[in-house]
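Input structure tokens:
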């Protein structure tokens, strides 16, 4: 039997209790208006709802059970009792209550969703899929329903179907970190399966070497990446893009001359490769050749106006040429548009230098102060991230509680 990842178990518990509390208010209103509800039952339901919001699940469960005796045909009371039992881990009882709620009201919002989660938590994945598909069909704009469809599809080893569902969830709730996590996981699995199929189909293809090179590049293993790109180029010497990718790894490995040769070869093969042209401009800055740098960067910007860090690098080229007025304008634009934290810091630093050259000392001090503030903020974030990673590594090392420079 397939065991659930601990991260997904935690998601189920955290997510269900928050929604459980939110649903209690609307359920109480519905119960108060229900024709079968007597005064005693209404008060029992109200008290149970209050207990639910406080997190007192035992009292909430007893209250909803008592309310059901007063109004046995009231679907929302069975629904809320099912939510409580699910949160308590009494999953068979939760399933029974949720099924009863759906028998009384087949379109009850959330009932099939929580029923699917209960099935999922007891490893009844196919039954869970049937329930969650009913929820997405009835409520197609419900992001949590699409998320759980994706999670359950992952559990049944259907990453492509999971990715489709989680893409829909992400469109509905683009800032939900749980959705983003599971969506990324699904797409990683789709990529992995695709590459494995490629390896099986043609293990000697240049594409195999390209994929291995890209994986090594992502892991910052430049030497291995360079070797794989060179192997790919040996098999496909005129394939557009390969020399540009090789050049990027050669530059990262501290081999600027070889990188320059690779970018130039790329432009011989594909004169429209804007990245090769732009990166030749960046290399020219590093060599101190402002004129050549400006020529390449401006030519690249004519092809693609939104190149990454273009204002920062163009400003550096203008500074090498002694064109401080032109550099000022470019850096002023960079500090308002740059998204990368490190490059934004450096843009403020270079802006401060230009202000000094132009004898605008007050503005220079302000720019340097902004640079220092951003640098300090990044250092603090880096420290917090380091602490977080150390904590995560420590948790991973424990026995499981259940089996279950910029361009």
């Amino acid at each position: 039997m397939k065991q659930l990842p601990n991260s997904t178990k935690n998601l189920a518990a955290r997510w269900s209790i928050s929604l459980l509390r939110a649903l209690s208010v609307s359920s109480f209103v519905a119960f108060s208006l229900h024709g079968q509800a007597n005064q005693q039952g209404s008060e029992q339901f109200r008290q149970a709802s209050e207990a639910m919001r406080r997190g007192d699940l035992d009292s909430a469960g007893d209250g909803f059970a008592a309310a059901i005796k007063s109004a046995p045909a009231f679907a929302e009371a069975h629904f809320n009792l099912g939510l409580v039992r699910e949160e308590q881990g009494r999953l068979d009882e939760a399933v029974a209550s949720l099924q009863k709620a759906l028998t009384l009201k087949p379109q009850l919002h959330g009932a099939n969703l929580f029923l699917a989660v209960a099935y999922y938590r007891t490893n009844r994945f196919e039954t869970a899929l049937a329930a969650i598909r009913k929820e997405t069909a009835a409520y197609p704009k419900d992001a949590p329903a699409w998320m759980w469809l994706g999670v359950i599809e992952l559990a049944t080893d259907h990453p492509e179907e999971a990715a489709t569902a989680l893409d829909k969830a992400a469109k509905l709730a683009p800032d939900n970190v749980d959705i983003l996590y599971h969506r990324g996981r699904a797409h990683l699995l789709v990529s992995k399966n695709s590459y494995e199929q490629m390896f099986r189909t043609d293990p000697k293809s240049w594409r195999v070497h390209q994929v291995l090179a890209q994986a090594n590049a992502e892991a910052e293993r430049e030497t291995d990446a360079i070797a794989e790109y060179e192997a790919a180029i040996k098999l496909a010497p005129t394939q557009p893009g390969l020399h540009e990718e090789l050049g990027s790894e050669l530059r990262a490995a501290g081999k600027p001359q070889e990188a320059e040769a690779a970018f130039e070869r790329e432009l011989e093969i594909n004169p429209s490769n804007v990245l090769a042209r732009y990166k030749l401009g960046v290399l020219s800055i590093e060599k101190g050749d402002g004129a050549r740098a400006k020529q390449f960067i401006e030519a690249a910007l004519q092809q693609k106006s939104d190149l990454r860090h273009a204002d920062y690098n163009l400003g550096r080229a203008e500074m090498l040429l002694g064109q401080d007025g032109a550099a000022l304008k470019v850096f002023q634009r960079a500090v308002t548009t740059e998204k990368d934290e490190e490059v934004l810091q450096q843009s403020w630093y270079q802006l401060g230098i230009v202000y000094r050259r132009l004898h605008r000392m007050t503005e220079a001090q302000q720019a340097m102060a902004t640079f220092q503030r951003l640098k300090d903020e990044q250092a603090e974030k880096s420290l917090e991230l380091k602490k977080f990673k150390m904590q995560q590594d420590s948790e991973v090392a424990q026995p499981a509680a259940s089996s279950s420079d910029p361009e």
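Confidence is low (pLDDT under 50) at residues 20-37, 396-406. DSSP finds 20 helices and no strands in the chain.
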